[in-house]
Design a protein that fits this description.
Elements lengths: L19 H5 L2 H4 L4 H20 L5 E6 L6 E5 L8 E2 L4 E2 H7 L22 H7 L1 E10 L2 E8 L2 E2 L4 E5 L4 E8 L1 H4 L7 H14 L4 E6 L6 E5 L4 H13 L12 E6 L3 E8 L6 E6 L2 E2 L5 H20 L11 H5 L2 E8 L17 H20 L1 H26 L29 E6 L1 H10 L5 E6 L11 H6 L1 H10 L16 E5 L4 H17 L1 H5 L3 E4 L4 E5 L2 E5 L2 H11 L7 E4 L8 H9 L6 E3 L5 H12 L3 H11 L9
Parallel strand pairs: 1-10, 14-16, 17-18, 17-19, 19-20
Antiparallel strand pairs: 1-2, 2-9, 3-4, 5-6, 5-9, 6-7, 6-8, 10-11, 12-13, 13-16, 14-15, 20-24, 21-22, 21-23
Helix pairs in contact: 3-5, 7-8, 9-11, 13-19
């Protein structure tokens, strides 16, 4: 049991000299003694080599993981760490750098314009926490070598023969007294970091050698496409389609006129935003002021495009999160005197960088959107969809929780005549107008693969109703329950019970209106079903035409007249019957004309122009009566027959 000490005098004050503070409290300098801290030692040495590349003094960095998995070597062809004697310390400069905290060439501008490490503690911290460290320097035609152990020089700096060229090689092994005996370098993690570096710095060659692999591997990375090429790789890894799919949708911009930065971004079908940011080549996993500048620039540029081109949607407010949903971005900035949060450099704190990044990217992105109108409109349509989905999900979460079908047979609507098949690829659902037509459809269907769901009257207008009303409406509830895929935040397309859904309505104005109401519901609340191609509009005939012993089916008057003109030969008099509704058709007639896949006609519902579709639905089905009046007046001259 510890005893409490009453006195507190000068004898209790402990002064840690040299690199002792680092070994005493390593977490203060590298964040911890876990795998992250273990690898941070390598990042410090690697960043020193990359700093030579950034500032134009080197072109190649080579990293070798040795067979033991614990020791690693970083080599660059830069200028080489200075080896001349420093009069004040009476030691070579390299020894002072490796054994003294806050010693380095990055405090004053001149040697390095941009640098990843300005604290002057990187190399010395690595040395302090390494069991062994060997530095080899090529300068002035000579090769200089010195060894260290746990922060102290274990040999003097020696000349080890002549050397061609210049550069620095550092080999070290993290100290097991600090990190334990089990930790090793993660070869794949190191490889990924090196590959990222090659994207960030055009013209740099990165060589990765892994001696722990069998056989030994050696890979060279050089990406002249820079971060635009990196963005393509990141998007493909996330496995989310670009918006619009298959187009050159990458925005890229670079500037080296007072503000040096590179940015590349694209929108995908993902539901989150993904930003990888770097400052002077250092990954800033916690973001910072440069990311804030990027986010602000994107939101302002897109808002300005929407307002300029009159694309503001009705009935929904676009938030910054909606605009950035699905965005994937790479941002690489270069700051002369970066202020990082902590030695591990996870976050940039320079307040002036936000305005600098915003000032460069916002006008550039606006110009790109205006120069690529088709891409811009696809992105805006995707943003509007995100906003509507967000508001629908929020409203649904506030509504009374309702469970959808959890299996093929549970919680299905009582009036659903289900099919025997449980394979969505074979199963079809016909949503039928009226009980009468539903009865004929049930008799004429193929019971193995075709299900029938009759509806009574006109369903709720999903464009004018709140999500709460939509989710509690009995008719729409029955549709969602039958489909099994849920709605709002519960939506899961993998649970869809039918591969094809047919809207089977009367071929009159009322039938068209009901079909439009259902399409509005599907578009606003189950849009992925339309995008998947699962929604179809059945095409029942309006006329039956008997000519002699032959029977023909006509979709409308024009089709009827064509049949009579082509088929009624000689004295044959056609017998014409007009169906007032599906209920007047027998089960056999409905089967032959509308249900049987061999004979039926149907229209697959697709979305060609999302922005125009969104606007049209809002105008025709929304609460604003003036929009509908304008639509009718503009098209009144096109009406030939009015069904009243």
């Amino acid at each position: 049991m510890a005893t409490k000490k009453e006195s507190y005098t000068g004898a209790d004050i402990q002064v840690l000299e040299g690199l002792e503070p680092v070994r005493k409290r390593p977490a203060m300098y590298i964040g911890g003694t876990d795998s992250t801290g273990y690898h941070h030692l390598l990042w410090e040495i690697l960043d020193n080599s990359v700093d030579e590349v950034i500032n134009g003094f080197a072109t190649t960095v080579e990293v070798t993981l040795h067979k033991d998995g614990r020791s690693i070597t970083v080599v660059d062809n830069g200028r080489g760490i200075p080896v001349d004697i420093m009069p004040k310390h009476k030691k070579p400069a390299v020894e002072v750098i490796l054994t003294t905290l806050h010693a380095g060439g990055k405090f004053e501008q001149g040697n390095y314009i941009h640098s990843g490490g300005l604290h002057g503690v990187g190399s010395s911290v690595v040395n302090a926490l390494a069991r062994k460290l060997v530095v080899e320097i090529k300068r002035d035609g000579k090769k200089h070598v010195q060894t260290y152990g746990r922060g102290k020089a274990t040999s003097t700096l020696k000349v080890d023969g002549p050397a061609r060229g210049t550069g620095t090689s550092v080999t070290f092994e993290p100290d097991p007294e600090i990190f334990g005996e089990k930790l090793k370098f993660d070869a794949e993690l190191v490889r990924e970091r090196l590959e990222a570096k090659s994207y960030l710095h055009k013209g740099m060659t990165v060589i990765w050698k892994d001696e722990t692999a069998t056989p030994h591997t050696s890979v060279t990375y050089k990406h002249d496409g820079g971060i635009a090429e990196y963005l393509t790789k990141v998007v493909s890894e996330r496995n989310k389609p670009l918006v619009p799919a298959g187009s050159a949708t990458t925005f890229y911009h670079s500037r080296d006129n007072g503000v040096r930065l590179e940015a590349a971004l694209a929108w995908t079908e993902a539901t989150d935003e993904h930003i990888r940011s770097y400052v002077n080549g250092i990954p800033t996993n916690l973001g910072g002021t440069h990311e804030a500048g990027l986010r602000g620039a994107v939101v302002k540029a897109v808002r300005n495009y929407i307002e300029t081109h009159d694309l503001t949607p009705k009935g929904v407010t676009l938030t910054a999160e909606d605009i950035r949903e699905g965005m994937v971005a790479i941002l690489s900035t270069y700051v002369v005197e970066p202020q990082f949060q902590g030695q591990t450099k996870g976050r940039l704190n320079n307040p002036e960088v936000t305005a600098q990044v915003d000032g460069v990217l916002r006008p550039a992105l606006e110009k790109w959107l205006n120069d690529n109108k088709s891409i811009a409109e696809a992105v805006v349509a995707r943003i509007i969809l995100a906003a509507r989905a967000r508001e629908a999900s929020r409203a649904a979460s506030q509504a009374v929780s309702r469970k959808t079908a959890v299996s093929h047979r549970l919680n299905l609507p009582g009036k659903l005549a289900d099919c025997a098949s449980t394979d969505p690829g074979l199963s079809e659902l016909f949503i039928v107008e009226g009980d009468s037509a539903g009865g004929s459809a049930k008799q004429g269907r193929d019971r193995r693969t075709q299900a029938i769901l009759p509806l009574r009257g006109k369903v709720l207008n999903a464009e004018q109703a709140s999500t709460d009303k939509v989710t509690t409406n009995k008719e729409l509830q029955d549709i969602v329950s039958a489909l099994g895929c849920g709605i709002g935040s519960d939506f899961d397309i993998s649970k869809l019970r039918y591969g094809r859904v047919f809207l089977l309505m009367d071929a009159d104005s009322d039938g068209h209106h009901i079909a439009t109401l259902l399409l509005t519901f599907f578009y606003r609340h189950l849009r992925p079903l339309i995008e998947k191609g699962a929604i179809h509009i059945a095409q029942p005939p309006l006329y039956r035409v008997d000519i002699g012993k032959e029977t023909y089916w006509a979709l409308d008057e024009a089709d009827r007249d064509r049949i009579i003109r082509e088929k009624a030969k000689g004295n044959a008099k056609p017998n014409i019957m007009r169906f007032k509704g599906l209920g007047e058709m027998t089960a056999d007639e409905l089967k032959e004309t509308t249900l049987d896949p061999k004979n039926r006609l149907s229209l697959r519902v697709t979305i060609d122009n999302p922005i125009e579709t969104d606007r049209l639905i809002n105008d025709l089905m929304g609460k604003d009566v003036s929009a509908r009046f304008k639509f009718i007046m503009e098209r009144a001259g096109e009406v030939q027959d009015l069904d009243v």
